[in-house]
Hints:
The structure is a single chain. By secondary structure, this protein is of the alpha+beta class. It folds into 5 domains: 28-179, Cathepsin B, Chain A (Alpha-Beta Complex); 196-269, SH3 type barrels; 331-423 and 434-455, SH3 type barrels (Roll); 463-535, SH3 Domains (SH3 type barrels), CATH 2.30.30; 553-625, SH3 type barrels (Roll), CATH 2.30.30. It is 12% helix and 29% strand. A 6-stranded antiparallel beta sheet has the order 3-8-4-5-6-7. Strand 13 and strand 14 (258-262) form a beta hairpin. The two termini are 43 Å apart.
Amino acid sequence: MTFTSNILSQNDSRWNNLKLGFHASETIGQEGCALTCLAMMASGYGYPETPDKLNKKLIDLGPGNGYVNSLMVWSGLTRLYPKIGIKEVYVCSDVKPVPVERIDSLLEYGQAVLVEIDSSMAAGEQSHWVLLTGKKDDDYIMLDPLAPSAEESVRLLVDRYGSGRAVDQLITSVAFYECWETGDGEPVIPALPGMFVQVLPSTTKGLRMRVQPDASASIVTVEIARTPLLVLEDEARASSKVGVTDQWIKVRDPQGFEGYVAAWYLEECRMPAPEEVPVPVLNETSPADSLLKLDMPEEMNPPVPAVGPAPEIQPEPSTPEPPTPVKTSKTIYVSSDVAGRGLRLRAQPNLQAETVTILDARQKLEIIEDASAARGKVGVINQWINVRTEKGESGYCAAWLLVLPVIQQSTNKETGGELATGLAVDPLAETQPTPVYRVEPTAEQELTVIVEPAIQPKEPEYTVIVSKNVGKMGLRLRTTPVNGSVIMVLKAETELTVLEPWETAHTKIGVKNEWLHVKNEDGKSGFTAAWFLETGKQPEKVISPDETTTDLVVNVSPVVGTGGLRLRTAPNLKSTIVKKLPPLTPLVVLEPVDAASPKIGVMDQWLNVSTKDGAAGYVAAWYVVR
């Protein structure tokens, strides 16, 4: 739905002296800029409102639903008009710069954007809300609720309030609303497993999510009242903290942001119990097509075949004797992939632990933890198995560089050539791995065969997601960038596989006038506008078979968003910026591991690092993760 400008002023004599919200003295004329902007927004989307009428409707929602005192509850407008969906309240900061690309894309699609600005150069922040309706060169066209006349209401933002400041120094927060043909209503609890909490209705301008469990930590985002949040820590421990002052809980919000929120502004919310699905019952006398049709998509309600004569009742077969349980082997071998480098047996299950000894390729080891659990970890990246050598040395080995044995008996009359216990080779598989054999006769004349499937390195796949900002119009997939023929229109939130090198592709995401070569799940490939794409699934970081490296590798935290993390020439916020690093950029730490490891994720700590292209400098350790 395209926005149509409708000019309103908070100083209009019809309502400027009315009390704002539940406050005893503040009036619309004094503090009603946000209210007036929301009234202009609703009217522009086809829901005629004036500040006095909207003020009353928000009051009638009750305390905590429309207002907290005189402070706006941002979801209140959505409760009144579900098609005007509140998406996010974005608080700008040093690590979350003004989301210019996101604002521009919404304006391009005919949406209005509500922004908070620092309206004066005076000391402190002079908060004022205005409504952006378009862009002109590097400035924004705004509707200003504080303007003294209608003629002055439509102005350019920077021209009016900049005082020499650019947009990224002027805008302090953004309330992202969107109005499409099917707008969102009150936030819905996602159908995910786990414990959920929600922001108390009595919060003021929302609850701040922070990068650390501390009120002085940097802000990730702001959650509106009643937002459901998925708990990312032990549920019993988190439950005991809900509502308790000075406690913090780690959570993930519906937009995927992760961080810590103040537990004393939370309450538990329960997932609704799933409705029971009726079971179709066939009447003895009714035909098969009289089966009760479930209220499901047609593909889930296939036609029921006609019922023929009742089959004869067959005698119940005798229950076969259960097979004799086979004892799980506790033997495991070092993979031949380690070749001459060997594999480190470590004192603890991590790459920084002390080396006990170096094991040879194909060396035989004994599992000294639960054998069944250990066998499930074999070949899995970032898993470790507790083992012991034939010399009695014990420790942990990288499970992705270990292989299981297959014990096969010799084909003579005594053994019958039957397959005994060992690595489970699927007899129904279309192809079986080509084994590499090492034969060792045992006391029982068995042959021990080590089966090592040939490792076929798979090219990592990176994906992107079509932004929700495209709305119902979707995003065009073209044969060539810019003016190519349209292959198809992609819906919002469609996942696409990137078909160009990720090193260059990830720098284009969200950038105006950049195009990305992609394909959809049906294999249709083409080019699409990168500024309407968001980062999707990233392949798991695979550790090289040479896991003996002593380099500590960290990644830029996803919470830095599109603004990235600054690589600086010195470990302080005033030093020169070398470059900006996108989220998930891998960095090699250039200082001792034992000194660097404790700094990761800690406020006011800095790490000396280098990038893949050789750029070196310092990054804020509280914005990197392992």
